[in-house]
Amino acid sequence: MSNTEARPLADAIRFLAIDSIVRAGEGHQGVPLGMAEIATALFTRHMKFNPADPQWPDRDRFVLSNGHGSMLLYALLHLTGYAHFGIDALKSFREMGSTCAGHPEFEPAAGIEVTTGPLGQGIANAFGMAVAEAYQNARFGDGIVDHYTYAFVGDGCLQEGIGQEMISLAGHLQLGKLILCWDDNQITDDGSTSLSISEDVSARFRVAGWHVVEVDGHDLEAVSAALVMARRDPRPSMIACRTVIARGIARLQGQRGGHSGKLFEADSEAARRELGWPHAPFDVPADVLDAWRSAGRRSEDAYRAWQARVAALPAAERAEFERIQAGRLPDGLREALEAYQRRAVETSDAQAGITISGEINDLLVPYLPERMVGCADLEAPTGHKRSLKAFTTSDRSGAYVHCGVREHLMGAMANGMAAHGGVIPLAVTYLAFSDYERPAMRMAALMGLPVKFVFSHDSIGVGRNGPTHQPVEILASLRAMPNMRVFRPADAVEAAECWMIALEHRSGPSTLVFARQALLMVRTTHAAANLSQRGAYVLAEAEGGKRRVTLIATGSEVALALEARARLQAEGIATAVVSMPCCEIFDEQDAAYRASVLGVGTARVAVEAAVRFGWDRYLGERGGFVGMPGFGASGPAEALYEHFGITPAHIAAEAKRLISSHEG
Amino acid sequence: MSNTEARPLADAIRFLAIDSIVRAGEGHQGVPLGMAEIATALFTRHMKFNPADPQWPDRDRFVLSNGHGSMLLYALLHLTGYAHFGIDALKSFREMGSTCAGHPEFEPAAGIEVTTGPLGQGIANAFGMAVAEAYQNARFGDGIVDHYTYAFVGDGCLQEGIGQEMISLAGHLQLGKLILCWDDNQITDDGSTSLSISEDVSARFRVAGWHVVEVDGHDLEAVSAALVMARRDPRPSMIACRTVIARGIARLQGQRGGHSGKLFEADSEAARRELGWPHAPFDVPADVLDAWRSAGRRSEDAYRAWQARVAALPAAERAEFERIQAGRLPDGLREALEAYQRRAVETSDAQAGITISGEINDLLVPYLPERMVGCADLEAPTGHKRSLKAFTTSDRSGAYVHCGVREHLMGAMANGMAAHGGVIPLAVTYLAFSDYERPAMRMAALMGLPVKFVFSHDSIGVGRNGPTHQPVEILASLRAMPNMRVFRPADAVEAAECWMIALEHRSGPSTLVFARQALLMVRTTHAAANLSQRGAYVLAEAEGGKRRVTLIATGSEVALALEARARLQAEGIATAVVSMPCCEIFDEQDAAYRASVLGVGTARVAVEAAVRFGWDRYLGERGGFVGMPGFGASGPAEALYEHFGITPAHIAAEAKRLISSHEG
């Protein structure tokens, strides 16, 4: 197929995009019109995929990192024959409920590998997919896992810090099966890229160790040749495709308005004349559609051969491969965690929260070989360096990715791993620096990906490193995020319970937060049930009469609440302590359970070494809060708790104040 | 002064750091020991500064971006004679209340230019300072503003995305007075940098257009020569200083433990023997201290000459310079905003929130030449491109910085500008992407910097771009942040009021959030007072009897609440509408005012096209909420409001449900 023969295929993308955008009244034509030849080259000659089985585990992955150009993806999925993308779907572009949403929304069964739009996320996801592929390839071999990850990327993604982090680390790790096609159109939403960048982008990639090829992005043959070179090169590849934004719309092409300037019927008609496309809107001539559908079937042989190889695997290996693809936990894991809890109760040693998390993670290692850990320049929270090999250029069997001081990439890498499947990703750093990866955490929540975001140094307990390193508002800000579960366990038993819940939770991310300082054991008897499973529970019921006070605490403050309870009980005030390791799960419980935990008609005091924001929903009109009034300070942890009044004495005093003002 | 003569000066830094860290029992010795010669070269030969007047507006700025090495800064401030850093301050390193906090904490009167610790922030602040200098230099000339900005930086800052964003844009803008000294010690907290980076860092800077010099960081003469070259070169400069981390501590130097491995008395004694430093802890010999103090006085002539030049300025120019240094608003500004409000009431046109913000910002231009705007690849929210010139390599008088798609750098740049002084910085992007700059917003709040963070596209009103672009949790997450005011005005009048409050607020940042869609006028009569000044107020009081319902709303939902009120009043239910443009200010009001606004014993319904998280503190036990249950969706804005039930009908129904369940 020559450039001339391929031209109608590329134009089919162009006109489906134009027609859908004109019909919707808005959209971003810049990418689909500018990258039509590149997409045609990739999908008709190189991509390994099967529209009949969009979730084929060994398919090549395709990420449209410049997600605003969503019509490019939808047109490709339509033309190659994905069931969810019939012509009616395209006609409903940007309508409520359409599969063709404004930006691509994660739906692997439909052929959408990942939600994109926020710039830089997509290429960092692609990086994570390439890491997951390399790791699985090392484990299962070329016959079972051996695919490329392709990403289309615009200038915005590369200007973003996360994009730069990705360039640096992908080069370091020499991820040879990661291939980017850069839409070098010299235009961003703001105008010419020359407003804000002068550097030679190709040179920047080369400095980081990438293989770079520069081509005319409208020359399909040249792009295809570059893809061949890219696939052969052991380095990650960046194909710099010089393109004209919105090519085909004479009024806008090559200009700022090409990005998303409104398209009118007249533009569509002019483009049809210009490009010699006499067909009606949404009408793709049969020969062109046939050529595309045949491209959609080009991997059928490879698909069948792969199925045969999987079927021929030894039974145990096949079962294991299928287990991790399905995301099922192995037998024995629950029992191992329960045994850990039992031991913790028996020894009843206070231990640093991060040590506890490290122990639990070490314990998981033999059970979950599919788990991968990304770590941003520290090892404390999971202590994995002890028990996991590093994932390196020369050894892809390591499950521990040294991400460097690149939290944002780490989070988005984990999302890409989870979207890839076959891997359980963890991302680990200090809680204070969760803000650096927050945009990626939001994407995990939005996509419903089962990523485990793990954090240490969860409060002023950090001590002398001071307020920059002390989270106070971060628990609240994460709890505000839809579909994000935030766990803050009080001791080793709750930690194991929360890890079990997080590992079983598949429809969204979990955040697990651990103290740097020692956590006293608050669970002093072994319980057969997972008490954290309802989000909050009565840890110590009131004694000597009807409950008058409920103290609600999380994490390291649960032990303080227990001490406060002892003081109150000694004064004859019947007081219960509620431990609330996960607000989000508690909020899902029925009203009767919630009332039984929080207490009806009691005074309630919440205790958390963080801001009050978000706590009032549990406090009612007789509520108090003991926590942080604002940012922390630099000083020893004990001095800070004293200074900010997060003490048993103050908790007890607050409870008594509430009682006297209401009962009295 | 030769290397030999300077050695005791550098060692004075080393041993003050060692002594303070040993005494505190913890700290990060890697930087002060590794960068002692670099710091000595800079402070004894190049820096323009005056310990007797730490806030001299034309001083060179010094940023310790690798802020964990705080003892380097404290030792320098002590040795050069800053009043806040007597030897007792050093002896209290890391104690509660010490000026020598774990990480440097913003205190310009003491000589600390900016809080650092979270990696990458410091060099991005330094970038902002260099932009502010260039802008002020263009306005006031070399005689009044002409200084360098120096930053020390470690590997972590350069791995962070924000650091990479800075490299790219500083190179593009050719900020020749920005000079970095890179502590190239090949070690991070995680171990060798080779774990996570392979690229040639100097080459990466050169690609971006920087001047790079590579030197032995322990050769003071070589460093000093490089600083001379750096100051002369028109490009921004990066001096790559090859160093040995923790140099002087034989047990740790050049190794991972050098970063912050615990130091013992024995290490201190061994270092004293090794380096020939027989002096007692905290004892700096008189000749060495004299040499340092004399370095502290080296800019005295320059200081007096500068004072004379300022004194000789024409009166009006001098007054203007002093006004902007003091951060005072000019006469006439308030009146101009009031006139705008009056016009808005008279015309009573519904306008897009972003258009309103743009109009107000255009109006500010003649009054506030000290205002600078950083914009991340869009112009809509302030529409400044209309009214401001771009700040470019060839024209430093432009107040509009095209930041490219680099939100994180933009935010930290604004912080650096505010810390620099003489400039009022704004940073503008979509609210959904505030997460990308959130770490910088946190630093603004922590430092109490008067940055204005401006956002558009504040809700599902974004419509068809879908949930990636629709903030739902972001208002809550920003309200959770201490010392951050979040404004969400309901119409043009409130917008002008909120801008006035934000401009007058000097002790912390303000976030201003605008709708993309049209805002109906809810303020239909002109009020002499700024009604937004108390955070919330009764916009429409209940009529026809005692108030039974309070509807509390913000932004675009205030108009919906007014419609709901009309329905309820029509049914004889006395209903008030409260507009709450700023929760944080309302929370500071006295209890009586708050009760009078929220209503006592009434049903209360909060209405906001965002999550409920944080609203319960206003709702009491008879509260309802009409807003978002989770993430949004892709579809027309009106359809989304209908779909999620954020409608007058639903608000009224919720109010009636509450009434019937409680009154009935």
What would you say about this model in short?
Chains A, B: One of its GO terms (molecular function) is metal ion binding. With 664 residues, chain A is α/β, with parallel strands linked by helices.
Description:
The structure is a homodimer of 664-residue chains. In chain A, the strands form 5 sheets. Chain A has a 6-stranded parallel β-sheet, sandwiched between helices. The mean pLDDT of chain A is 96. In chain A, strand 11, helix 18 and strand 12 (452-456) form a beta-alpha-beta unit. Helix content of chain A is 42%, strand content 13%. The first copy, chain A, has 3 domains: 3-303, Rossmann fold; 333-519, Thiamin diphosphate (ThDP)-binding fold, Pyr/PP domains (Rossmann fold); 534-663, Rossmann fold, CATH 3.40.50.920. Chain A has 25 helices and 20 strands. At the A-B interface, helix 7, helix 8, helix 9, helix 17 and helix 18 of A face helix 7, helix 8, helix 9, helix 17 and helix 18 of B. Chains A, B: Belongs to the transketolase family.
Describe how the helices and strands are arranged.
The structure is a homodimer of 664-residue chains.
Chain A: H1 3-24, H2 30-34, H3 36-45, E1 61-64, H4 70-80, H5 87-91, H6 121-140, E2 149-153, H7 155-159, H8 161-173, E3 178-184, E4 187-188, E5 191-192, H9 201-207, E6 211-216, H10 220-232, E7 237-242, H11 265-275, H12 286-296, H13 300-311, H14 315-326, H15 333-347, E8 351-352, H16 353-364, E9 371-375, E10 400-402, H17 407-420, E11 424-430, H18 434-447, E12 452-456, H19 474-479, E13 485-487, H20 492-504, E14 510-513, E15 518-519, E16 537-540, E17 549-553, H21 557-570, E18 575-579, H22 583-587, H23 591-598, E19 603-607, E20 623-626, H24 637-643, H25 648-663
Parallel strand pairs in A: 1-2, 2-3, 3-7, 6-7, 9-10, 9-11, 11-12, 12-14, 13-14, 17-18, 17-19, 19-20
Antiparallel strand pairs in A: 4-5, 8-15, 16-18
Helix pairs in contact in A: 1-3, 1-4, 1-11, 3-10, 6-8, 6-17, 15-20, 16-20, 17-18, 21-25
Pfam family, one (chains A, B): Transket_pyr
Active site (chains A, B): 407 (proton donor)
Protein name (chains A, B): Transketolase
